[in-house]
Write a structure and sequence with these properties.
The structure holds two protein chains of two kinds.
Chain A (H helix, E strand, L loop, with lengths): L1 E5 L2 H7 L5 E7 L2 H4 L5 H17 L5 E7 L5 H4 L2 H5 L4 E4 L3 H10 L4 E4 L1 E11 L2 E6 L15 H4 L26 H11 L36
Chain B lengths: L16 H5 L6 H9 L3 H11 L3 H7 L3 H5 L11 H12 L14 E5 L3 H13 L3 E4 L8 H4 L8 H12 L3 E4 L10 H6 L2 E6 L5 E2 L12 E3 H11 L7 E5 L3 H11 L5 E5 L11 H9 L3 E3 L2 E9 L2 E14 L5 E5 L5 E4 L2 E4 L3 E2 L33 E3 L2 H4 L4 H20 L19 H4 L15 H4 L12 H8 L9 E3 L9 H5 L25 H5 L5 E3 L8 H7 L12 E6 L14 H6 E6 L7 H10 L3 E7 L10 H17 L7 E6 L5 H15 L3
Parallel strand pairs in B: 1-2, 1-4, 2-3, 4-16, 6-14, 7-8, 7-14, 8-9, 19-20, 19-21, 21-22
Antiparallel strand pairs in B: 5-15, 10-11, 11-12, 11-13, 17-18
Helix pairs in contact in B: 2-3, 2-18, 3-6, 4-6, 6-18, 7-15, 11-12, 12-13, 23-24
The chains are: A alpha/beta, B alpha/beta.
Chain lengths: ~220, ~700
């Protein structure tokens, strides 16, 4: 899933300065699961905005709504009615959702309420870790199912490096060294010999080097 | 209660076992939950909606609800009946009858006992003019004739009956069917339906040798005499035969007439006795001697007077088919000495009023045969119910008959098929899973205060003195709100698993093949999952839980609130609010500056509600929660601390000083400690708001 964190309230406040009627729009998928863009956060953010305006003597009307996925045209069609009188929309979806909204409603000012951070998941209640960098050329088959591209600070293809200390990364004592974990995993699977194979430089053209990427499923594409 | 059930494929319409166990389907859980929240008037309305004799029922009901209470698994059942008595005694109120005079058909009810009164109550509320014909000079039937005043004071019956009369029910006393009027005369007077609810007026007797001796009394007649005159002729050594409720009543009544000794002899073992443990314990406590597992062979006497009861030892009372079929050990005879023997082995009917009514069929046992659904007796317009049909029933079983007869009469007269939804059987919330029992806090049962033992036998005054407000709330707060806890809306759930992780009782789960969470009947209604659910997909089924919203909004409906500075809203946990002996919260400064919003567990309050308080005009918010050591839900402190930090951050974002939002953990919500905290908070914020 896509993980996104809340923008500081001050930044949001500055973005929305001067608008009289604002819609805070949540997204019911990834960002709901990571507790930053769901219905609950819509309520809290709207309350903060109203309270802030009230304390500063500003007039501000806040509409609260949410949709299942902002990154789907059909799911945002109905939002038209909700935002028709709004000066601005604060979308607390990931960057994809905000862009879909901006494209669908070009006349309405669209603002992001979140910073989209990574693809990952919760490892325990309230804790989210990055797990995938979207490199476009998955190598998990050779690394015991653990991704060095997204989880190694250096993105090494042949690790661990000398900075691996007691299973932790030298960059942060909080971060496990993924190459240490890969070693343990391959050991468990009696595949340690794999570690001796030198992996040649990775082809990065399938990844972030090649923006914007596109995927077409011919068998599903319909004639216009 | 109308349960909230949002669109949920997996929703199971389970009912609380206490409600299902009740013959009249009293909404026990709901009135208990309202008491727990301090909403007493509403609680009484919930009781009264289905129960026409709440104060009486709260005293003498055999409370099958408590037998089925799921608290039996963790400690002891909630005192559901005594909580009803608390409401009846303190919050009884006249009911409005918007349907009065709606229909013209008159209904005659024979007998002002529980069945007759319940039927009259419900028929009056449906809009029918009702007249009850009662042979005695007072109402109540067997609960007045048979139940001693130390269990059920007469003014309590009168109060309940008074409210029934105010619905438009007329009671004609000293009028006996077959003597003062007949079925024909009722027809001539224009009564459209007759409900026979005459009860069982006589005692069953034992046809054994010596039954005619002087000193042998009938149980019901004995109780009737004492209950109406306050006295009866008994000797020094009284022996009651029987092991049921009437036998216990006879023994305890006899004790109050000050003989030297009162004993009870019954066929059943102590565990088999057909009455509640409580009644047996009270009888023994007051001095009754129990002789269990003995059967009467003959009554022995001298000079025409009783001298004792010859008994046999019982082999078994019920045979292999579980039928009542007692067997005795031969040659085990012995004699229990007594100069008075009271036979309390059951009640019998007196059917002399049926003379000339051969169409009304009766059983060999002397009860009237009525259709079990319609209560009709094969004669159009004539219905029967209560003990005269049941044979041996409880007060609530009789009331249930009365209620059902009311609907049956209405359906016949109007040609409709009205149903009382409450009678529809639903599955009961299953027993608590064994693994979860240890997670639920044991809550000490509140003891009913009773009259001191040394005074009891000098009077017929009530033994149980009733709950104080604090005791009632404390006891009600032991209720687990079975079947009305949290529910997940399948359409909103995103399967984030938050509820599964945060529940302190391991209740929510995501079953294989499902993408949404499911919360079963073991939910304890703490509300942690409701607040933490990012999709706002979880709500309470009970409409009585708004998690503080309505109470907060209500505070600001008071126009004078604007003049208060600083105005502090205190969100407090109601579980800690009614400790017996707590210091009254009357400090003047507090009364002026504070408005209190009580919630049954602060774990169910959204941080956004604290923001809402500021938005509405509060200068400060004080959250006072219970410490983990006293927390009803065991470990909410951690969550309340986390939310305090989180809310402080939200407020900091809009520029509200952290001193204006404080969270404290207190041992009582009314004690000295909280007054000190509250004073300090006013001082803290006085200059910054």
């Amino acid at each position: 899933m896509i993980v996104a964190s809340s923008k500081p309230f001050q930044e949001i406040k500055q973005m929305l300065a001067g608008f009289k009627k604002v819609c805070v729009l949540g997204c019911g998928s990834c960002v709901t699961i990571c507790h930053t863009g769901g219905e609950k956060q819509v309520t809290e953010l709207a309350a903060q905005l109203r309270l802030s305006a009230q304390l500063e003597g500003r007039q501000l009307e806040v509409i609260e709504d949410s949709t299942l996925r902002q990154c789907e045209w059909e799911f945002i069609d109905d939002i038209k009615e909700v935002i028709k009188d709004c000066d601005a929309v604060l979308s607390i979806a990931c960057g994809v959702g905000v862009q879909y909204m901006a494209e669908k409603f070009p006349k309405t000012r669209m603002f992001p309420g979140l910073n989209t951070t990574f693809m990952g998941g919760p490892t325990e209640q309230g804790v989210f870790w990055e797990r995938c960098a979207g490199c476009g050329n998955c190598i998990l088959a050779t690394t015991g199912g653990l991704c060095p591209v997204s989880r190694c600070a250096k993105g090494l293809m042949n690790g661990p490096c000398g900075g691996s200390q007691k299973g932790k990364c030298e960059v942060s004592q909080e971060t496990p060294c993924v190459w240490n974990q890969i070693y343990d995993q391959l050991d468990t699977q009696q595949l340690l010999a794999t570690m001796e194979t030198i992996v040649p430089p990775k082809d990065w053209t399938t990844g972030m080097e090649n923006h914007p990427r596109k995927m077409v499923l011919e068998h599903l594409v319909m004639k216009k | 209660m109308q349960i909230n059930h949002p669109q949920s494929k997996s929703y199971v319409n389970e009912e609380a076992p206490c409600i299902l166990a009740c013959p009249i389907r009293q909404d026990a859980r709901d009135y208990v939950q309202l008491i727990a929240r301090g909403r007493f008037d509403e609680a009484f309305q919930v009781v009264r909606e289905r129960n026409s004799l709440p104060s009486a029922c709260g005293r003498i009901c055999t409370h099958p609800c408590e037998t089925k209470c799921r608290r039996n698994s963790t400690d002891k059942p909630v005192a559901i009946a005594w909580l009803k008595r608390f409401l009846g005694d303190n919050y009884s109120k006249e009911q409005k009858n918007p349907s009065a005079g709606k229909y013209s058909e008159k209904i005659a009810i024979i007998g002002a006992g529980p069945a007759g009164l319940a039927a009259a109550n419900d028929l009056a509320l449906l809009g029918y003019p009702c007249a009850i014909f009662e042979s005695s000079p007072t109402p109540g039937g067997m609960i007045r004739m048979g139940v001693p005043a130390y269990r059920l004071p007469r003014d309590v019956i009168d109060r309940d009956v008074e409210f029934i009369k105010k619905l438009g029910v007329e009671i004609k006393y000293n009028t006996t069917l077959g003597v003062d009027f007949t079925f024909e005369s009722l027809k001539k007077e224009g009564y459209a339906a007759v409900f026979i609810a005459v009860g069982l007026q006589d005692s069953r007797t034992l046809n054994i040798e010596g039954a005619q001796l002087e000193g042998v009394l009938k149980g019901i007649a004995f109780l009737h005499e004492v209950n109406t005159t306050g006295k009866a002729k008994i000797g020094k050594n009284v022996l009651v035969i029987g092991g049921g409720a009437v036998a216990m009543d006879c023994a305890r009544t006899a004790l109050r007439l000050k003989p030297e000794k009162v004993s009870v002899a019954c066929l059943e073992s102590r565990k088999e006795m057909p009455t509640t443990d409580f009644e047996i314990e009270e009888a023994v406590h007051e001095g009754t001697i129990l002789h269990n597992s003995v059967g009467p062979k003959r009554i022995v006497g001298r000079d025409g007077k009783v001298t004792g009861l010859e008994i046999l030892k019982v082999k078994y009372v019920f045979d292999e088919q579980k039928r009542f079929n007692p067997a005795f050990y031969e040659g085990s005879e012995s004699v229990l000495e007594a100069d008075t023997i009271i036979m309390a082995i059951g009640q019998a009917s007196n059917l002399t009023f049926l003379k000339g009514q051969e169409n009304i069929k009766v059983t060999r046992g002397g009860t009237i045969i009525a259709n079990p659904q319609t209560f009709n007796v094969d004669v159009p317009g004539i219905y029967a119910g209560g003990d005269i049909v049941l044979g041996r029933g409880t007060m609530t079983e009789s009331m249930a008959h009365g209620k059902k007869v009311a609907i049956a009469i209405h359906n016949t007269l109007r040609g409709v098929t009205v149903k009382d939804e409450k009678w529809i059987d639903k599955p009961a919330v299953p027993d608590i899973e064994t693994a979860k029992i240890g997670l639920i806090k044991k809550e000490e049962k509140v003891e009913m205060p009773v009259m001191a033992s040394e005074h009891r036998l000098n009077t017929f005054d009530e033994v149980e003195l009733g709950f104080t407000l604090e005791a009632a709330v404390k006891e009600a707060q032991r209720c687990m709100n079975c079947g009305a806890g949290a529910i997940v809306d399948d359409n909103l759930c995103v399967g984030c698993v938050t509820c599964v992780r945060v529940c302190p009782f391991d209740v929510p789960s995501i079953k294989r093949g499902s993408t949404t969470a499911y919360i079963d009947g073991d939910c304890q209604s703490c509300g942690l999952c409701i607040v933490e659910c990012p999709a706002k997909a979880i709500t309470f089924k009970t409409p009585y839980e708004d998690r503080g919203k309505d109470a907060l909004e209500a505070v600001f409906k008071d126009k004078h609130i604007r003049g208060i500075k600083p105005l502090v809203i205190n969100f407090y946990c109601q579980y800690g609010a009614y400790n017996e002996g707590s210091q009254a919260n009357t400090a003047e400064l507090l009364v002026f500056h504070y408005r209190r919003v009580g919630v049954l567990g602060l774990g169910k309050v959204d941080p956004s509600l604290y923001l809402r308080a500021f938005e509405l005009g509060a200068h400060s918010v004080l959250v006072t929660a219970c410490k983990d050591s006293t927390c009803h839900f065991c470990k909410e402190q951690e969550w309340i601390e986390k939310r305090a930090k989180y809310t402080t951050q939200l407020l900091a974002g809009v520029g509200i000083d952290a001193r204006r939002f404080q969270t404290h953990f207190v041992s009582s919500q009314n004690g000295k400690e909280i007054i000190e905290i509250a004073f300090k908070m006013v001082e803290d914020v006085r200059d910054i708001v």
